[in-house]
Please model this.
Amino acid sequence: MHVSLSFESWTDGERQVKTLVDGLDRWEVHCASRLTVTFSDDIESTCLDDAIRLQVVQAPRALANEKMGVGACLWDGSIILGTYLACQPRHSFIGCGVVELGAGVGLLSTLLCKLGARKVYATDLAKVLPLLQENADVNGCAGEVMEVMALEWGVDTDHLVRADNLNESFGASAAGTRDAYPDLVIASDVTYHDNEASMQPDTVEFVKLCRRLCGPRTEVLIGLERRSGSVRDAFIAEIRKRFDVVSMVDLRKVRGFPKDLVVDHIDVWRLRLHSTCAKEKEKKKNQKKEKKKSAENITRDRSAAPL
Ligand SMILES: C[S@@+](CC[C@H](N)C(=O)[O-])C[C@H]1O[C@@H](n2cnc3c(N)ncnc32)[C@H](O)[C@@H]1O
Model:
């Protein structure tokens, strides 16, 4: 897989188009008003039809919290997680129902539309939605497939009602052929410390919402930027509490994942409520049996113990 980013920006009063050659450069990315992100099988095919080319419209001047906040620009986690998605076999997302949480400029949602998703709900705070909608429009995703909607976690219990509505929508649009749950819940870089303490996204509420959206077959994919040890610890403790299957993807082992994009500061997590893998199920069953056995042994020992 080859990923290229080109930017439109202004230098000394002139419009420039530059291409980022190696790795990621947040400063370059955040200076641009518009980016083109291309995912292609190899460098040569970036110009061919099978490459996926996405436009990203940003609002760098609105990055301040009192304006649009961090949803105004594209973050590294989405580029990494997007590349991970693009490395999966091409049929993987055809017909999928997806919810993206904290979508920002919506790179992952628009990519999933291009990869064949049936329905994508791209969600974020209300103040980010006009930019998210613009990104759906410029990529030709708006309408039937991609819907932009407000979904905020951690402020009140209202979001739980909306999560139920989302699941109902999945049920209705699948017309009884699938679960009333998304196949994929996806989010990137949505748990972090903010300069303004009151603007902190609530990690526990975020994980609770992911759990709430999940059905038995839903997969959750999260790109986590390592910004703060305490946020990461809270995230890991919470996902372990609420999901049965938790694993961190080793990007170096993902077929086709570009070496220059294997970075230390972004982790990709995969979560599920239940294991679909027979081996995992067997392991869990055995663990339960062992637990029961040792509990019985303890009771027997106690009753046999001399007074
Ligand atoms: C660092 S940005 C990442 C944006 C995008 N996922 C990306 O990777 O480019 C964090 C995103 O989370 C959203 N966010 C923060 N707190 C939120 C909350 N409580 N509910 C919903 N979205 C939230 C922000 O509006 C912003 O779009």
Q: What stands out?
A: Residues 278-304 form the longest helix (27 residues). The mean pLDDT is 85.
